[in-house]
Design goal:
The complex is a heterotrimer of chains A (314), B (362) and C (353). By secondary structure, chain A is mainly alpha-helical. Chain A is 65% helix and 2% strand. Chain B has 362 residues and is of the alpha+beta class. Classes of the chains: A mainly alpha (314), B alpha+beta (362), C mainly alpha (353). Chains in contact: A-B, A-C, B-C. Chains A and B meet through loops of A and loops of B.
């Protein structure tokens, strides 16, 4: 019998069973397509470890290694970690002494602003979602639609009055202002997503807990919340990706002390009149990508379950 | 010819062996039930026959042709799934007609075929409804209708009645049996319900831990269980299985020490081949007669718990050494708790299992 | 039952009580309106804030007294949304009826003049209409490209296969990039002298390739970059739909010998229709906001100015605040019409099925 098993199968390469599962053939196809899709990102990451003088060379340098002679020498560069250093400290004038660039501060700002606004939205939004799901108000659906509309609105419609409002009350350039704004921006999304998760839970369990004498608060924290961890994780990832890279609000509303990385990155590459500093930009972006990449990767399993929100229910 | 045969069929999931060396042959017009506790590999076997799982080793032969490498589409089979697998976006009529698209029938012909099976299964009233709008019993019949709407090589049923309530299950058993009898196809039904297997099958294959323990007619598996597992699995209340020391054999009677008592039991003549050894004696609860007096061929026990079951009464009796023996007596036979009982087993229904667990039988 | 049992009917509108939220709303809205119209911005903001707090407090007390947890739970969210979203919206709606520039102090009521001006004035309307047409072009092409690419990627990843998790994260990465970096790097990829695209074309044809010099090229370049970044978003949504299809349906279809094509339309599509619509909705809304990539790639040159970018210029660089507000509202109106059209079509289709 074993004679009928092909060599590939013997090596652990299963053939597809035909339904629901694909084999290594699909892996190969997906690997090629994913790699091509990832190429522009890979190029940015490689640029971050290029010596500055080859950043704009023609032909373009593509790889830090010749891959055992597969890649012709003209496309190969010698990797360096210098660029990451100059993100935080570099000379601002030609031949000048290195000065701190303030990017440590901007990274700190980005982390504080993005994480606190996403978490704040998660707390407020989850409470509201539980309310909408379990204690429907009169005209519940209308409220929900209005809330969704705030997400539908082009940011640009909100931004002018917000700028004016912040200027008027002295919130422009403060952490409070931008965190509150991002919180509001994440809220609609959070409420809709978490509501769909709460809607799916079985009410019997919660009723049973009430009959056993649990308070409503306890039911929420001990029964409902642990069942929607996946939803919380997915909501967090989505909110984080959107907030982390937000540019327009940050550009118009953050001051020198609260500047986030996207804004600072824009200034760093376009100022000084020397044209774009490619290796520096790539180094900033590579560093900036790491946190959100890691969070997404570790919460990835929740992501697919999480996005089924708002689907047509039967 | 519509037949199914599996030879030395094995399925491994990583290091776990779900099915091992399963052999089974189903003739045209025959209904075979795969019966076993959950996790015994019966569904995996069915899914390998259907082509939904790849066999690790062994052959699957449907209609005389080896089909291991073929996709489900090419095997020309019909299957009823445990959860019915009705296409939620299609109406009942469209669901039933789904397998006909492959045959490229004209719409009129296809509609006629759908109507015909709908009539057989009393679904003609609900053809325009969506699967979400019909009852559980109707869903089940839709799944069956979808299977019999065309003329496949064979039929496969995966726990077809497990989601129905007792009453519906009873009536559906009859309906499915009736439908299958008119079709003369090889049919495999997977179930964990022995009543379902006993009533619907021509033959039953009993599985445990991935191994087929016995294949036989409902009568055979009940009357001549091949081993201790089959004996314990088939029949309610469960067969009494008591460990005993076989002492000697003579005159068709075996002398055994059972629960501390020396008893002469009428057993199969093949027991004479055994040397004195440890055996397991199996006696069904209904195979006892309650004797007035103690005798050499009676087992002594005390009634401990009495459960009236309607026409009969189940008595849990305890021997001096504490073995629990289940006895079923007619309703008229009144027994009181604490009463001493002299139980005489029916020699034709007394089974002896050797040390390896296999039945000792001629 | 989970629904709260109201033990008492809500208080009548006229009674002054800490839990009379109807009265609180009435007072709050009236005072806010007066404050916005009469007081300077710095004062009116705090007045409106106080009113929001008053309404929220009334809700909270009312909810607490009646064990009306719904209101209590929802209140903080409503308060934040009101201050940060709804109030600014109303403010800018009001502003669009005034002549106001943020660098000047004067403000006067002009009625619909701003709307008339941005839609018909010879000086400004042409630019607005051009930007609007460009936005429409970008909406159509970026959304179409994202839907197609995202959908195909989702099909690729729909089945379980070895290493799927690791390959999936590669495809998701473009979505995580900062628009600034990816936009700037796309200018590099498209650069006629140093760029990779130009290098590849050059080595094939021997001629330098300048993508962004024509409108067609510029639009293609922007659409490509945008589609590359946001197709993964569509992919995630579609993929979530695909993996939610019960596996046994495909198994049943395989047994019933249903063709792949028919399987898709009868099993897969009904499951992903809702999420496809959602992806379409979100991406359309986002495409309307397209500004950052245009700023980075063309600065609006080669006739690629979009309405969002145009708006930023008018409102922020030229300080024509109320004119910008008017444009915002015209835009908002269009987005709402479009999204409702989608929803209407989606609902009609799902009811017809």
């Amino acid at each position: 019998m074993s004679g009928k098993v092909s060599i590939l199968e013997a090596l652990g390469f299963r053939k597809a069973s035909g339904v629901g599962e694909a084999g290594w053939g699909r892996t190969l196809a997906a690997a090629i397509i994913s790699f091509i899709y990832f190429l522009p990102v890979l190029f940015i990451i490689f640029t971050a470890i290029k010596p500055q003088d080859v950043a704009l060379s023609v032909p373009p340098t593509l790889s830090p290694t010749s891959l055992f002679g597969l890649i012709p020498d003209q496309f190969v560069f010698t990797p360096t970690l210098e660029n990451f250093g100059s993100v935080f400290e570099r000379s601002m004038t030609v031949g000048g002494a290195p000065e701190p660039t303030g990017f440590d501060r901007y990274f700190f700002n980005s982390i504080v602003i993005a994480s606190s606004s996403v978490l704040l939205a998660l707390v407020i939004g989850t409470l509201a979602a539980f309310g909408f799901s379990r204690y429907p108000l009169k005209g519940n659906d209308t409220y929900l639609f209005i809330i969704l509309t705030t997400r539908m609105l082009p940011a640009i419609v909100v931004i002018i009055p917000v700028i004016l409002m912040f200027r008027a009350v002295g919130l422009s350039g403060s952490y409070t202002g931008i965190i509150l704004l991002y919180t509001a921006f994440n809220l609609a999304f959070t409420i809709w997503m978490m509501k769909s998760f709460f809607d799916e839970l079985s009410l019997d369990v919660e009723d049973a807990a009430r009959i056993d004498g649990s308070s409503d608060v306890r039911v929420f924290f001990k029964i409902a919340l642990p069942q929607v961890i996946a939803g919380l994780a997915a909501t967090f990832v989505f909110g984080l990706i959107l907030t982390w890279n937000e540019f327009l609000f940050a550009l118009l509303l953050s001051g020198p002390d609260t500047r986030t990385v996207p804004v600072a990155m824009n200034q760093a590459v376009s100022s000084g009149g020397r044209g774009t500093d490619w290796t520096l930009l790539a180094a900033i972006e590579t560093l900036f990508l790491i946190p959100v990449f890691l969070v997404t990767f570790f919460l990835q399993n929740h992501l697919l379950r999480g996005v089924t929100f708002g689907t047509v229910k039967r | 010819m519509s037949t199914i045969e599996i030879r030395k069929l094995t399925k491994q999931f990583g290091a776990f062996t779900a099915v091992r060396d399963a052999d089974l042959k189903v003739d045209a017009g025959e209904v075979v039930c795969l019966l076993g506790p959950s996790g015994c590999g019966k569904t995996t076997t069915l899914r390998m026959i259907a082509g939904l799982e790849r066999a690790t080793e062994g052959d699957i032969i449907i209609a005389g042709q080896r089909m291991n490498e073929l996709t489900p589409q090419k095997r020309d089979i019909a299957m009823v799934f445990q959860f019915y697998a009705l296409y939620p976006a299609l109406s009942v009529g469209q669901n039933i007609g789904m397998p006909l698209h492959y045959e490229g029938l004209s719409k009129a012909d296809a509609d006629a075929r759908v109507m015909k099976v709908a009539k057989i299964l009393h679904l003609d009233e609900v053809l325009d409804r969506m699967p979400g709008q019909v009852s559980e019993g109707e869903k089940q019949r839709i799944a069956v209708a979808r299977a019999i709407v065309r003329d496949p090589n064979c039929f496969l049923f995966d726990e077809p009645l497990s989601r129905l309530d007792v009453e519906l299950r009873h009536s559906m058993r009859g309906q499915i049996k009736e439908v299958l009898q008119g079709l003369s196809k090889a049919t495999v039904i997977v179930t964990h319900d022995q009543l379902e297997a006993l009533t619907m099958a021509n033959r039953i294959a009993i599985m445990k831990d991935g191994v087929i323990e016995q294949v036989g007619t409902p009568h055979d598996v009940f009357a001549k269980p091949a081993n201790v597992f089959v004996a314990s699995f088939i029949g309610t209340p469960q067969m009494n299985l008591v460990e005993a020391d076989l002492r000697s054999f003579g005159d068709g009677m075996a002398s055994v020490v059972l629960a501390g008592q020396e008893v002469a039991l009428g057993v199969d003549p093949a027991v004479s081949r055994l040397k004195p050894s440890k055996v397991t004696v199996g006696i069904r609860p209904r195979a006892f007669t309650v004797s007035q007096d103690k005798a050499r061929d009676t087992i002594e026990a005390q009634a401990e718990l009495i459960e009236p079951m309607g026409a009969e009464t189940l008595i849990h009796a305890r021997t001096g050494l504490g073995s629990d023996i289940r006895v079923v007596v007619p309703r008229e036979k009144r027994v009181k708790v604490g009463e001493a009982m002299h139980l005489r087993p029916d020699p034709r229904q007394t089974h002896v299992f050797g040390e390896d667990g296999r039945a000792v039988r001629a | 039952m989970n629904a709260p049992t109201a033990t008492a009917s809500p208080p009548p509108l006229t009674r002054i009580a800490p839990d009379n939220w109807k009265l609180a709303i009435l007072v709050g809205v009236l005072v806010s309106l007066v404050a916005v119209l009469a007081a300077p911005a710095a004062v009116s903001f705090w007045i409106v804030g106080a009113m929001a707090a008053l309404i929220a407090a009334a809700f909270a007390i009312n909810a607490y007294r009646r064990k009306y947890y719904g209101g209590l739970l929802v209140a903080p969210a409503i308060a934040v949304l009101f201050v940060m979203n709804i109030f600014p919206l109303l403010w800018s709606l009001g502003l669009s009826f005034f002549a106001y520039q943020s660098n000047q102090q004067s403000i006067r009521f002009v009625g619909l003049a701003n709307y008339v001006k941005v839609l018909t004035s010879e000086l400004t309307a042409t630019a607005n209409w051009l930007a609007l047409i460009n936005t429409a072009i970008f909406v159509i092409f970026t959304v179409a490209a994202q839907m197609i690419v995202g959908f195909l990627l989702a099909m690729l990843f729909a089945k379980q296969f070895p290493l799927r998790k690791y390959l999936l994260i590669l495809v998701l990465t473009p979505m995580m990039l900062s628009v600034v970096a990816s936009g700037v790097f796309f200018t590099y990829y498209y650069d006629p002298t140093f760029g990779i695209l130009s290098y590849v074309v050059n080595s094939l044809t021997g001629e330098q390739f300048v993508l962004m010099s024509t409108k067609l090229g510029a639009v293609t370049g922007i659409v490509f970059a945008d589609a590359w970044m946001w197709s993964p978003f569509v992919m995630l949504l579609v993929l979530a739909g695909l993996v939610s299809v019960p596996k046994y349906l495909y198994e049943a279809a395989a047994i019933d010998r249903v063709s792949k094509w028919r399987q898709f339309w009868t099993i897969t599509f009904p499951y992903i229709r809702g999420l496809l619509m959602l992806a379409l909705l979100f991406r359309t809304i986002e495409a309307f906001k397209l500004a950052d990539l245009v700023i980075l790639l063309t600065k609006g040159g080669n006739d690629t100015m979009t309405i969002s970018y145009h708006l930023i210029r008018i409102a922020n660089e030229q300080n024509k605040t109320s004119e910008g507000a008017a444009i915002s509202y015209i835009m908002l109106f269009m987005v709402i019409v479009l999204t409702n059209l989608y929803l209407y079509l989606a609902n009609r289709r799902s009811q017809g099925a």
